[in-house]
Amino acid sequence: MLNFNYNVSTRIFFGRNSIEHLGDELKQYGTRVLFVSGQGSIKKTGLYDTVIDIFSQNGLVYHELSGVQPNPRISLVRQGVRLCRDHDIQCIVAVGGGSVIDSAKTIATGYYHDGDPWDLFVLGDASVKKALPIGTVLTFSGTGSEMNGNAVISNEETTEKLAIHKDVLRPRFSILDPTYTFSMSENQTAAGTVDIFSHILEQYFSPTRDAFLQNRLAEGLLKTCIQYGPVALEAPRDYEARAQLMWTSSIALNGLLGYGRVSDWATHGVEHALSAMFDVTHGVGLAILTPYWMELVLSDETMSKFVEYARNVWMITGNNDRTVAKEGIEKTREFFTALGMPQKLRDVGVTQNALVVMVEKAVVHGDLGKFKKLGKPEILSLLNNAF
Amino acid sequence: MLNFNYNVSTRIFFGRNSIEHLGDELKQYGTRVLFVSGQGSIKKTGLYDTVIDIFSQNGLVYHELSGVQPNPRISLVRQGVRLCRDHDIQCIVAVGGGSVIDSAKTIATGYYHDGDPWDLFVLGDASVKKALPIGTVLTFSGTGSEMNGNAVISNEETTEKLAIHKDVLRPRFSILDPTYTFSMSENQTAAGTVDIFSHILEQYFSPTRDAFLQNRLAEGLLKTCIQYGPVALEAPRDYEARAQLMWTSSIALNGLLGYGRVSDWATHGVEHALSAMFDVTHGVGLAILTPYWMELVLSDETMSKFVEYARNVWMITGNNDRTVAKEGIEKTREFFTALGMPQKLRDVGVTQNALVVMVEKAVVHGDLGKFKKLGKPEILSLLNNAF
After folding, report:
1. Which end of chain A is more exposed for a tag (fewer CB within 10 A), N or C?
2. pLDDT grade, residue A161 (50/70/90)?
3. Could you give the ipTM of this predicted complex?
């Protein structure tokens, strides 16, 4: 096990009616709140009114920033920073999914940054030093942003999609009520499940051999996705399925699986280049790319990890390692397909001549991958196979 | 999944040389420190000198309370509270295992309690309201006290052993360097491993049926104990084995496995009565009692949980549920025995006429167990079987 500093400080209020904690939590940070939300679904479900009522009952003054899109844009973040400065905001509450939360995080640190908030993504994590406190009310399971210090933002002018990671960006608290995810569409549910699954795989496929505990925890979370993803798709109002996916999503990326080992993240790197150019849903991009990534990096050297995965997660038996490993990859592809995910990049509007540009965007910060290093030729190969 | 409020705020510095964080962490809370330790083993290993040097380099003034024993006593806690008041202590650092940490926690909250600190154990958790900040440097894997808000203290006058649980008792930080556990004796290593294993089982054997994720995580941790307990026993300086056990120990009881479901804790309840009367090592008591507890509560009603345990943890196959379940219990007993644990209460000096008294002590706060309720007759039966 490698050395690590553990800090998972986000308080979670989990379960039906956990919104009742919102007022008390927010009041700890002040009375002037920025309320960040997405494209209006919370007005349909009534959650918007609930939140406004809580502000009013607790004497909180709020300003609103709505309209956050999937693959959230730096332009809206800039608006948010201005609002925070104009109104001397003390705390930000994000009501929505990962895009809303990531926007809120970037506003929270952009508030303390003298220049343009996009600078922080270009300069990297070291430039992120301070942030306004944020809290979240989660309506979408998948990104894990509700319990970590990551934010991914797209720049529509440069068609870049970049990430920052810092503990100061961790939400102080998150309200996780599984009933708020009942309204996730079929496609969102499937893509969210793939996103969780992929977050786990990125850490499971690690070059760190000594990570027994982390591997067993990861397998437990993967099995939970396999068990409950299809249930949530079939029965969107199944509380237990939604609860299991919601909590798995948070744990999958809060640090627990990654502490003590190196993680890979090559597939995410390629997907960010993809969705920056084609505005593909993140989980959909991951569903297409992941099995091709597995096929690309499977070799004699990496075989044992794939066998471990196939045996422990998919319960595949047999003596021939290569056959077992390949069955594990095939099971992964079948799982994503059964959730309704496409298998090819061409199915989501990607054009073949864009692949070379995508490679360049993917390596903007250098080669990808730690389990297996991917340079430009390997990434192009991956994209061609997935096309 | 049941509703829960998650709060695992303890910062962990894990790995070789993580002691280097001690000074900076302590300085956040002030300059006057109470240094709590055990029976001198840290002087032999050199850790004592390292800690003193760090105090000196960081301008920290310290007062010492050493001599904490296993099954730590309230009398020493009282001394600690007096020291804190006399010297206006701002922060407590516990260097040792669970007994040292539990003593430090009780001193930390006793400092704010007007009466005798034992009152808090009699009055229960609601009486614990505030505590001095504490940090720990762990030298013993097993109790999990380094990352939770629990403290168990013995009263030598009343031969009671009682617990308090409150988030304010969670250490602010813990330094987990696996090399500090190289000096654990064979018996300590074995008993510590059983203690971890038992903490997981107490949460795994739950009446909450909907806990898929929690069950899979628990199975991962149980497998880690099975994998690395024997390695650490065989090769006390095996870094990876010590690291895996150390981190498993912390995760096993920091809340992660218990959030969202009801836990059992009957075996711990009986063991506390046992070790209050006979000063048996906690893990040794658990090793004896656990298989008998399993045999006692196995029934048609509880069968499916035992089958889940046997199949997923011990990989037992076969179609007859009762046979599978019993094999799982037998595997558990064999595991403890292979670690060198005794099988019978008589082997650790317990006298048969004490069993009835032990029952009374065990039910002082009411019946035990949530997976299966144990009243006085069932507890007596358990003790007689284990005698």
Report:
1. C
2. confident
3. 0.95
Beta bridge partners of A137: A95, A175
* pLDDT level of residue A325 (50, 70, 90 thresholds): very high
> What is the rounded CA–CA span in Å between residue B386 and residue B281?
16
Instruction: Tell whether A248 is within 8 A of chain B (Cβ).
Output: yes
Could you say which of A6, A220, A248 has the minimum Cβ distance to residue B14?
A: A6
How far apart (Å, rounded) are the C-alpha atoms in residues B192 and B233? Answer: 11
Question: Which position has the token pair 């090559």?
Answer: A266
Phi and psi at residue B3, to the nearest 5°? -65, 150
- The residues pairing with B137 across neighbouring beta strands, listed in sequence order, are B95, B175
Bridge partner list, A173: A11, A135
Which has the closest alpha carbon to B190: B222, B230, B217, B150? B230
Residue ranges of domains in chain B, CATH in brackets: 11-180 (3.40.50.1970), 186-386 (1.20.1090.10)
Residue A6 forms contact with B (CB below 8 Å): yes
Distances (CA, A) of A64 to A34, A43, A102, A153, B69: 6, 13, 16, 20, 58
Residue written as token pair 């690291």: B243
Residue ranges for chain B with pLDDT beneath 70: none
What is the Cα–Cα distance from A288 to A138, expressed in whole angstroms? 26
To 5 degrees, how large is the angle CA A61–CA A67–CA A69? 135
Apex B51 CA angle, B47 and B52, nearest 5: 115
Inter-residue contact A335 to A226 (CB < 8 Å)? yes
Q: How high is the pLDDT of residue A160?
A: 87
Contact: A260, B248; criterion CB under 8 Å: no
Whether A160 contacts A276, CB under 8 Å:
yes
Residue B178 is encoded by which pair of tokens? 């696996």
Contacts with A259 from chain B: Cβ below 8 Å: 14
| Residue found by looking up tokens 């969102």 in the block | A188
Query: How buried is A3 (Cβ within 10 angstroms: 0-12 exposed, 13-18 middle, 19+ buried)?
Result: middle
Q: Indicate yes or no: CB of A243 within 8 angstroms of CB of B8.
A: no
| CB-CB under 8 Å, A219 with B216 | yes
Which tokens in the block code for residue A298? 């499977």
The residues, ordered by sequence, that sit 6+ positions from B136 with a Cβ below 8 Å of its Cβ are: B93, B94, B95, B100, B101, B104, B145, B146, B171, B173, B174, B175
- For chain B, the maximum distance between any two Cα atoms, rounded to a whole number of angstroms, is 66
Measured between its terminal Cα atoms, the distance across chain B in Å is 38
Pick left, alpha or beta for residue A144 (phi over 0 → left; psi -120 to 50 → alpha; otherwise beta).
left
Over residues A300-316, mean pLDDT: 97
> Which residue in A has a C-alpha nearest to residue B251's C-alpha?
A256
Decide if A70 contacts A152 (C-beta within 8 A). Answer: no
Residue B96 parent element (H or E):
strand B91-96
pLDDT digit string (tens) for A42-59? Answer: 999 999 999 999 999 999
Q: How far is CA B5 from CA A18, B11, B55, B261, in A?
A: 9, 18, 36, 12
Are B213 and A248 in contact (CB < 8 Å)?
yes
Q: Is the dihedral of CA B254, B255, B257, B263 positive or negative?
A: positive
The 10s digit of each residue's pLDDT in B101-153 is 999 999 999 999 999 999 999 999 999 999 999 999 999 999 999 999 999 99
Are B289 and B270 a contacting pair, CB within 8 Å? yes
